[in-house]
Amino acid sequence: MIEKAKIVQWILRDEYLKRSGISAGVWNGWTHRHLKRGVHFQIIGHQTLVHVRNLEEWIRTYKSTTKPKYFKEEINEKKPPKYDQVCTPARIRISEQEKL
Questions:
Q1: From the DSSP assignment, how many helices (H) and strands (E) are in the chain?
Q2: Is-contact 51 40, C-beta < 8 A?
């Protein structure tokens, strides 16, 4: 008996890249850094198969280890004072002499 609406788990890499819009360069980076052979993908002969469910789960739960270039940590922190606003003992002495 054939199961109704059986979900396809493994598809060819090129087909997955076409459907998802992920570039081949991004895929290569992910396979070298993050994805595990046998869990997220499998190579059989000269064909790379992608396990759709496991890869989609990884994409949903992946937390980036790098921060975007536009990200600023010091958004809520005070800015450091400007040089003119810093009171060093030498600057205080100079300003006292100017008053005389």
A1: 4, 3
A2: yes
Residue 8: predicted pLDDT = 72
Q: Superfamily assignment of 1-64 in CATH?
A: Putative excisionased domain DUF1233 (1.10.1660.60)
**Secondary structure class of 51 (helix, strand, coil):** strand
Tally Cβ neighbours within 10 Å of residue 16: 20
Cβ neighbours around 86 below 10 Å, total: 9
What's the rounded Cα separation, in Å, for the pair 59 and 63? 9
Q: Which residues partner with 43 through β-bridges?
A: 48
Residue ranges per structural domain of the chain? 1-64
Query: What's the pLDDT band for 44 if we cut at 50, 70, 90?
Result: very high
Cα separation of 36 and 82, whole Å?
50
- Does residue 1 surpass a pLDDT of 60? no
Q: What's residue 2's pLDDT? A: 46
